[in-house]
Structure formats: structure tokens, C-alpha cells
């Protein structure tokens, strides 16, 4: 029987485990738009990128709040903008609330999701 060197097994194992990831992946910001393209969605809560916000929500928040914001473990967010302002939503994202841990999304990602959710009325 042919023996496989230990370093080969270790390298394959390390590569395999690194592919599992931690689940807290940040998406890359959208590329700069040229002057001929339309600007990001502008709404009452400010300027934000709705497609990026929705993708971030689905990757980070939908496990508890549902793919369509319908609620599951976490509360329904379909009309959260009628209850909380962008700043209040951002505060919840940053500090957590109830069983929601703080800092699941941070920085501009948190601001983008907060603005997007604030328009859900």
C-alpha cells in the first residue's frame, strides 16, 4: 500500500476547512457607476443601494427575520419603517436588542440595511 506524506494530508485538510468560512462575510461595495448609469435608489430615508441591502439582509438577517421579512425567530420587519426611524434601526443593528446580538453587520453595510428597512412602511 502506498503511503501519503503527512504534509499532503495536512495541506488538503487545511484547504478544505478554510472553504467552510465563518458566515460573517462582508460583501464588496458596488463598483463606481459611470455618469451614464442611473444613481443608486434614493428614498425618504436617504440614499442607499437597495440590491446590496437586500443581499446583505438575505445573507445575514433572513435566518431569523425570514427571506421576505415576514419574521421567524426574530420579529416581522415588513413594515418596520413605520415603527422605527433609520437611526433607531441602525442603533438596533449596532447594539442588538432582545435575543439579537450586536454587530452582525457593521459600518456602511449596517447603514445601507438601516436605510432600506426604514423605507419598509
The first-level CATH class of one domain is given as Mainly Alpha
Gap between N and C termini = 67 Å
Number of strands: 2
SS-based structural class?
mainly alpha
As residue ranges, the low-confidence spans are: 7-42
CATH architecture of one domain: Orthogonal Bundle
In this structure, how is the largest beta sheet organized? Answer: 2 strands, antiparallel
The number of helical runs is 5
Describe, in plain words, how this protein is organized in 3D.
Pfam families: Cytochrome_CBB3. Heme c binds at residues 61, 64-65, 100. InterPro entries: Cyt_c-like_dom, Cyt_c-like_dom_sf, Cyt_c_BACSU-c550-type, Cytochro_C551, Cytochrome_c550/c551-like. It comes from Brevibacillus agri. This is Cytochrome c. Helix 2 (50-60) crosses helix 5 and helix 4 crosses helix 5. This protein has a domain at 46-121: Cytochrome Bc1 Complex, Chain D, domain 2, CATH 1.10.760.10. The model is unreliable at 7-42 (pLDDT under 50). Strands 1-2 form a two-stranded antiparallel ribbon. Helix content is 41%, strand content 3%. By secondary structure, the chain is mainly alpha-helical. The longest helix has 13 residues, at 6-18. Strand 1 (42-43) and strand 2 (46-47) form a beta hairpin. It contains five helices and two strands, in the order αββαααα.
Keywords:
3% strand; 2 strands; two-stranded antiparallel sheet; 5 helices; 121 residues; Cytochrome Bc1 Complex, Chain D, domain 2; 41% helix; mainly alpha
Amino acid at each position: 500500500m502506498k503511503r501519503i506524506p503527512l504534509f499532503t494530508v495536512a495541506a488538503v485538510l487545511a484547504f478544505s476547512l478554510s472553504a467552510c468560512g465563518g458566515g460573517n462575510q462582508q460583501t464588496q461595495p458596488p463598483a463606481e457607476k459611470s455618469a451614464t448609469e442611473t444613481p443608486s435608489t434614493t428614498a425618504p430615508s436617504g440614499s442607499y443601494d437597495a440590491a446590496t441591502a437586500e443581499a446583505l439582509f438575505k445573507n445575514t438577517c433572513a435566518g431569523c427575520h425570514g427571506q421576505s421579512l415576514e419574521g421567524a425567530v426574530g420579529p416581522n420587519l415588513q413594515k418596520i419603517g413605520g415603527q422605527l426611524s433609520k437611526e433607531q434601526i441602525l442603533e438596533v443593528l449596532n447594539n442588538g436588542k432582545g435575543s439579537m446580538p450586536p454587530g452582525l453587520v457593521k459600518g456602511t453595510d449596517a447603514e445601507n440595511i438601516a436605510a432600506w428597512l426604514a423605507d419598509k412602511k
